[in-house]
Amino acid sequence: MAFTTKQKAYIALAATSIIWGTTWVASKVAVTNAPPLQVSAIRQFIAGLIYIVFFKLKGEPWPSFKQFKPLLVMSFFLLIIANGFATWSIKYLSSGLAALIAALYPLCVVIIEMIFFKTKNTPATFIGLLLGLAGICVVFYDNAFHHNSGDYLFGVILSVIATLSWGIGTIFVARKKLNINPYYGMGWQMMLAAPFIFLMSVANGKNISLTAIPMQTWLAIAYLVIIGSCIAFVCFIYSMRNLPAAIASLYAYINPIVAMIVGSILLSEKLTINILIGTAITIIGVYLVNHSLKEVPTTELIENEI
């Protein structure tokens, strides 16, 4: 049976939602027996190389020096800090909680723009902000009973910093139009980020030799690169081109739920009724904030994955 374009788009949307939810679990597996920043550096280098080689073979020109400057800024906020710290945080947090904190980045965008750019917002925006914060507090409170160590708090701090950096980076992307194929540009962002994240890992004193990295970690990195950074992006692009933006962006609300369910099944992560209630409240809050915004840039949606 042949599928229509719209049916294929919905299949692509489902694939995006599930895959980007499972990447949080794959990241958890990857960092279990390897330094998280080193894992992030390896992933960014391989994925960036794939993107650059692919687009160079298609005839894309080398970025100009003028283009490299904003690419470096985007790389710093979206990959070096956001993705690097998010990967680091998942060493100490459940994959579901890390995914839920990352889903709060639209709230960060609104708060940053209200403070620094004096943007006006609707009542729905403020209701969404309150619900999002209330929901995440419920999840934090419940998780605190299962994680009493300082490592848990450190992981939360890293994750919050990563989400704030995502917010700052997406504002920069929305306000700085770059005359370059966004996916080719993303490949360069990954390639620029990789050595900086590697140096952070070296400075952290946790690096190990490549031969000491277990096969389980390499398989998780392969999943993150091939399935998470390549196949899922193809599905995302297809769904964005063939579905209304409001529908195509639904994956952002499904990701944390997928991460929590898969993490509970595969990694035996705690999943209580309070966590589910808090997650539902948070997602409703994020939805209200997103819905109240006049426009959510495509680049902003693309970066919301690990």
Cα separation of the termini: 35 Å
Beta percentage is: under 5%
Q: How would you spell out the order of helices and strands?
A: HHHHHHHHHHHHH
Radius of gyration: 19 Å
Note the main sheet.
none
Total helical segments = 13
The number of E-state strands comes to: 0
Low-confidence stretches: 295-303
Tell me which oligomeric state these chains represent. Answer: single chain
Described by the principal axes of the CA atoms, the overall outline is globular
Helical content stands at over 70%
Q: Structural class of the helix and strand makeup?
A: mainly alpha
How confident is the prediction overall: mean pLDDT?
85
Number of domains: 1
Q: What this model shows, in words?
A:
This protein has one domain. 78% of the residues lie in helices and 0% in strands. The protein contains 13 helices and no strands. The protein has helices spanning 5-32, 36-57, 65-89, 95-102, 105-116, 123-144, 150-175, 182-204, 215-242, 245-248, 251-267, 273-292, 298-302. Residues 295-303 have low confidence and may be disordered.
